[in-house]
Recover the amino acids of this structure.
């Protein structure tokens, strides 16, 4: 019989992908212009991990989902107003910067500290989920470092599927080159999964679940401990938006055959 | 003086992927720029052929962690092998291709070594006598070049971003590094691929064909023509051998229960939450938005787009040529001409 799972999802906030970003210099290193004013969302890959965690928790009776999130408390609260409506979870908030220029090793250290401090966490039956990269640092480094700090050496990255088998083992599909998946069987928890997109749609909002979650989320935000996360001595040579702008030639009001011929010649060139 | 190690792994047939030769070329150039030497470390079941393939690169030493334990790409064994190789070489800088196998383990290895890591670097150079790495933040939206004092410094190189070192095979002398393979609770049981005729992701293709949500929208006659869109797209892929990319909105439709293109999945998605493939040419059709036009083809050299809106602000300035036309009509004609 499968033991209840304790699924710890690590994920923080990122600027809404539709926002235009502009780098600026700050005393602490590079940052984003109006960073605290930018609309934020839960990082898309971590969100996929969270949806998958909720789905797994539904399948294994007694399981529980935690969301461990490092970010500025005020911004976390804004984002949680939406995320909390998806399904039941417990927030573990860590107060600190969520920007992309922070150091992955320090973030991993802070997350490991927060996870180790979760009361009643069953580490033998723990699945540590997160994104295989983020839409901020985009390094794909934090989860592996976190796994090392937690002593977990069954790690998977680019995960699109994690299924609990009848014998309690886990069947995991990881993305590899060429649009293929590597299939692995792990004997069981604990594991670390860095999620790609998975296969689940975003769950619909449920205001009742949202209200229930927020009752615990607000105190969790108030209790959030500050974390020392910085840029760790990096020497930034350049930080800039890509400058390249192409001189676009617009082809219109010409016969379709002419356009097609041009495309065919370009493809064959 | 920096001690540079170039980490490689073998493919299932014992050969090296071309990204390995890109990494060796980067290590060789970096060593020259720093007036230093470099070594190569190879992980795999049997590394003899791979070692011979890079024997002419000028590495001062070739280390190997080889044996049946290292045949399968698994975190526990690969991490142990990479850690042992880095320690054997006394590396202060570790370069490696950002393959799925190394991307799975090298950040963890960095933690074990007490170092720092930069991933998916697109260039590495020597600036003011120090190595400087170029990499993107915020998913290809902010470009940086940085250096750092911490060592060891592990740097993974994005495949396709650097020139491939051309080498003639030679006879290599290999120093085996003993690695006690840790007990692993994980077994790799296979590779899951779509059927050959259904595989639409082709990393080595000359052309990336990007399909946007417009293919599924109402057309001029007031109806959508998804079946026809499917035929046109698949026919084009068949005729040209192109790789297929998708906008996020199109990939998301499957999850939202809308009628979709059945061959399209999240694996095809390009952009901020998808892949950033590298191809010499890209043709975007029926796309609107930043994801496909900006982020998704950041690494596409020649870009063209088909769009009914000549004022599309996402295409202008991002594509070399914008064809203002109905994609159904234009692509049918293209296919007719391709024969």
């Amino acid at each position: 019989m499968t033991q209840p799972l304790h699924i710890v999802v690590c994920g923080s906030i990122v600027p809404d992908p539709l926002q235009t970003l502009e780098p600026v210099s700050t005393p602490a290193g590079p940052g984003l212009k109006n960073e605290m004013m930018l609309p934020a969302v839960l990082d898309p890959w971590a969100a996929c991990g969270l949806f998958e965690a909720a789905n797994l928790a539904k399948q294994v009776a007694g399981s529980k989902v935690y969301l461990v999130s490092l970010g500025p408390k005020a911004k976390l609260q804004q984002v949680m107003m939406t995320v909390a409506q998806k399904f039941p979870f417990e927030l573990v908030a860590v107060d600190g910067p969520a920007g992309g220029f922070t150091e992955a090793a320090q973030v991993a250290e802070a997350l490991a500290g927060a996870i180790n401090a979760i009361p009643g966490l069953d580490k033998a039956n723990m699945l540590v989920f997160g994104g295989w990269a983020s839409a901020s640092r985009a390094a794909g480094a934090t989860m592996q470092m976190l796994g090392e700090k937690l002593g977990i050496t069954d790690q998977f990255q680019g995960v699109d599927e994690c299924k609990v088998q009848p014998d309690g083992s886990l069947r995991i599909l990881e993305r590899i080159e060429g649009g293929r998946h590597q299939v692995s069987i792990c004997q069981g928890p604990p594991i670390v999964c860095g999620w790609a997109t998975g296969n689940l749609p975003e769950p619909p909002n449920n205001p009742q679940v949202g209200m229930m979650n927020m009752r615990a989320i607000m105190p969790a935000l108030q209790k959030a401990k500050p974390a020392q996360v910085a840029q760790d001595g990096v020497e930034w040579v350049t930080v800039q938006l890509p400058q390249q702008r192409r001189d676009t030639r617009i082809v219109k009001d010409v016969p379709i055959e002419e356009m097609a011929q041009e495309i065919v010649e370009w493809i064959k060139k | 003086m920096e001690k540079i190690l170039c980490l490689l792994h073998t493919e299932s047939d014992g050969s090296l992927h071309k990204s390995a030769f890109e990494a060796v070329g980067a290590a060789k150039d970096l060593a020259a720029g720093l007036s230093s030497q470099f070594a190569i470390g190879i992980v795999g079941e049997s590394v003899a052929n791979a070692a011979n393939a890079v024997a002419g690169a000028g590495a001062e030493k070739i280390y190997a962690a080889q044996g049946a334990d290292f045949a399968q790409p698994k975190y526990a064994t690969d991490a142990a092998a990479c850690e042992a190789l880095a320690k054997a070489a006394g590396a202060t800088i570790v370069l490696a291709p950002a393959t799925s196998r190394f991307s799975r383990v090298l950040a963890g290895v960095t933690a074990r070594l007490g170092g720092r890591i930069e991933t998916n670097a697109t260039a590495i150079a020597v600036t003011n006598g120090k190595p400087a790495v170029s990499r993107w933040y915020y998913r290809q939206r902010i470009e940086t070049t940085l250096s750092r004092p911490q060592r060891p410094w592990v740097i993974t190189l994005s495949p396709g971003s650097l020139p491939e070192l051309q080498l003639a095979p030679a006879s290599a002398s290999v120093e085996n590094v003993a690695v006690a393979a840790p007990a692993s609770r994980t077994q790799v049981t296979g590779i899951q691929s779509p059927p050959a005729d259904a595989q639409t992701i082709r990393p080595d293709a000359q052309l990336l064909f990007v399909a946007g949500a417009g293919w599924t929208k109402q057309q001029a006659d007031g109806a959508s023509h998804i079946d026809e869109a499917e035929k046109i797209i698949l026919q084009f892929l068949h005729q040209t051998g192109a790789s297929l990319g998708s906008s996020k909105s199109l990939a998301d439709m499957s999850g939202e229960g809308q009628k979709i293109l059945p061959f399209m999945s999240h694996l095809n998605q390009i952009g901020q939450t998808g892949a950033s493939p590298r191809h010499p040419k890209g043709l975007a059709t029926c796309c609107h938005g930043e994801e496909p036009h900006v982020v998704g083809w950041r690494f596409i050299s020649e870009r063209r787009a088909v769009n009914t809106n000549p004022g599309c602000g996402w295409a202008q300035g991002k594509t070399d040529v914008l064809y203002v036309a109905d994609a159904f009509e234009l692509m049918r004609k293209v296919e007719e001409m391709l024969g």
About this structure: Chain B touches chain A through 98 residues (CB under 8 Å). The helical segments of chain B are 18-33, 48-53, 75-89, 100-113, 226-240, 248-255, 290-295, 327-338. The radius of gyration of chain B is 23 Å. The mean pLDDT of chain B is 92.
